[in-house]
Design a protein that fits this description.
Blueprint lengths: L5 H14 L5 H9 L8 H8 L9 H18 L1 H10 L4 H11 L3 H6 L12 H13 L2 E4 L4 E4 L6 H6 L11 H16 L2 H23 L11 E2 L4 E2 L2 H10 L8 H10 L20 H6 L2 H14 L1
Antiparallel strand pairs: 1-2, 3-4
Helix pairs in contact: 1-5, 1-8, 10-11, 11-12, 11-15, 13-15
Length: 306
């Protein structure tokens, strides 16, 4: 891609590594959620590089050995090189999407105050250099509007991203896949209020699935997400309340849940209001600021980890 300075790819990956708590998992999960034309199959790469002598071992033993060997490869930079070669193949709009997930993250801002990491790398430079090389390409991030802005008249980043869907995530479940298609159809037609309402419904159902999976149906657990007297699930406000109160019971996902609840705030006051109270989301810019795609991505991550 001639548009971007080569160093942007380098510092984009390193910044994701920092935000992911010194792991490439966050970047890999983000890539997985987007429907990028170029797909990255790290498992396939692992298989290609696997020592043939361990193929006869039980699957769990192979995973254990590879976990150790890939941890070493990560430190030696082999995983980084795989990611770098992959990122370079992505389309311009894909890079913008990755940047728009990264920049609002509170840990990205924290990089600018940090010093050295465990390996003696000066991480403050990762933050500053990514911004620097983007500005060399005439691109700046507006933290208030949560948008990428171009200094060049012939480059309209908003227009490039406008072709994209509101929620560009791969859903395995047919119900979520169909609902997501409906959301994106409304979004492209300019029916932004409908997109908002349907997105809220998607979030509501994901939370129900999380609570049902974490707290299997029995007499004690059922009231967490279901009203037996009326034979229906709780409304979004009560689901959010019950979910937030139990976040410590989700172990390592507690921080992910906290991040989700920071993003969900605009949804809560209008979760059960009439149509007049959500008219503000009838404008594209207001809807885009909600980071709905990121919220849903966080919920899917939590659901998968249960």
């Amino acid at each position: 891609m001639s548009k971007f300075h080569p160093k942007i790819f380098e510092y984009l990956i390193k910044s994701y590594y920092y935000v992911g708590f010194s792991s490439y998992e966050y970047l890999l999960e983000t890539l997985k959620f987007f429907n990028f034309q170029e797909e990255l199959d790290l498992n396939k790469i692992k298989e290609e590089k696997r020592d043939p002598s361990i193929n006869e071992l039980p699957l769990e033993k192979i995973k254990e050995i590879e976990s150790i060997s890939w941890s070493l490869k990560e430190r030696e930079g082999e995983v980084y090189n795989v990611l770098l070669n992959y990122i370079k193949l992505l389309k311009e709009e894909d890079i913008y999407k990755l940047l728009l997930v990264l920049f609002p993250d509170t840990r990205f801002k924290a990089m600018s105050y940090d010093n050295w990491n465990y390996y003696g790398e000066y991480v403050k430079d990762w933050h500053n250099n990514l911004i620097h090389f983007l500005e060399l390409c005439g691109i700046k991030y507006d933290s208030e509007k949560k948008q990428l802005i171009s200094f060049e008249e012939d480059l309209d980043i908003k227009k490039i991203l406008a072709k994209s869907d509101l929620i560009d995530i791969k859903f395995e479940d047919i119900f979520y896949r169909n609902l997501n298609q409906e959301i994106n159809k409304c979004y492209k037609l300019g029916a932004y209020t409908a997109s908002f309402i349907l997105s809220r419904k998607l979030i509501e159902n994901l939370i129900i699935d999380i609570l049902r999976k974490k707290y299997p149906q029995n007499e004690e657990n059922l009231p967490i997400y279901y009203r037996t007297e009326s034979g229906r699930f709780h409304d979004l406000n009560l689901l959010l309340k019950n979910f937030e109160e139990r976040k410590k019971e989700f172990g390592i996902d507690e921080e992910t849940i906290e991040e989700f609840f920071k993003l969900i705030k605009p949804f809560r006051p209008s979760a059960n209001s009439n149509a007049h109270s959500i008219i503000v989301w009838g404008e594209k810019d207001n809807l885009d600021k909600l980071q709905i795609e990121k919220m849903i991505g966080l919920l899917i991550k939590i659901l998968r980890n249960i």
